Amino acid sequence: MAGIKAFSLTNATHLPVTGDLHPLRKEFTRWLSWSNVFCIVIGGSLFASWYFYSHAKKEDAVPRNVQIVKFTELGVPPSIQKESAPQVNVPDAIAPPTIGVPEPVPDAEATESTIASQSEMSDALAPITASDMAGSGDSLVVDTSDKAPKPGEFVPFDELPVLLSVQPPIYPEMVREAGIDGTVTVQVLVGKDGKVKQAQAIDGPGPLREAGLTSARTAIFKPALQGTSPVEVWVMVPITFQLHK
Are 218 and 163 in contact (CB under 8 A)? Predict the structure, then answer.
């Protein structure tokens, strides 16, 4: 071709374009080394400044004098009590009483006190009879009748009451038609004769409580015993109403 000059590349210098011999790789390594040196110099300078500043002697520093003393060289510890006794304000002399002070009398006017003998004392005390005890005032009346215990009151006993018999409850027809059933718990007071003296419904359906009370009042028990004596106690009697038996 005319106008184009050809050059031979036989003797041309071969430039590496990859690997560690690349010019950019060499520049990177050189700048990385200088930056490491620069950081080490700056860090060393800061550390040296801090070290010399912290270990420099300060004029206002107070020297510490430490003295080691053995416990055997210590004396007796001081008393925790106050050395001086508390001051007590003593009142002035109390004036002597002006009443009830015995006054001396002549011997002729003084009465001689003697101690009575057993016979003299028995003669002075007149015997007391039943008529002397009966006075016109109100007499003391002691009620010896037994009082029934209150519900929940503790009564000591040795044997529990035993249920002997009870009439079955009468199911109210209206309550049965309403489909109401359940158990009515009745608290009864068992007397000394084994019969129910008092009864009260404490649990169960409201419409069935009256029928439960009526049935529980017919219960007969063997009474509770305290030793060999019967005592009155409160017990629970469940009355069950069932629609389908």
Answer: no
CA angle 240, 213, 234 (to 5 degrees): 95
What is the residue-wise DSSP string for 46-110? Answer: HHHHHHHHHSSPPTTPPPP------GGG--PPPPSS-SSPPP--PPPPPPPPSSS------TTTP
| Closest residue by Cα to residue 212 from 172, 152, 162 | 172
Q: Are 163 and 216 in contact (CB under 8 A)?
A: no
Beta strand 182-190 with 196-203 is antiparallel
d(CA 73, CA 154): 74
Residue 105 falls in which region: left (phi positive, over 0), alpha (psi -120 to 50) or beta: beta
What residues contact residue 149 under an 8 Å CB cut-off, 6+ apart? 155, 189, 232, 233, 234
pLDDT in tens, 166-205: 999 988 888 888 888 889 999 999 999 999 999 999 999 9
**Mean pLDDT in order along the chain per 10 residues (245 residues):** 58 59 77 89 90 71 69 70 60 64 68 65 60 50 63 85 91 88 92 92 91 92 91 92 78
CA distance 148 to 216: 18
What residues form DSSP beta bridges with 224? 231
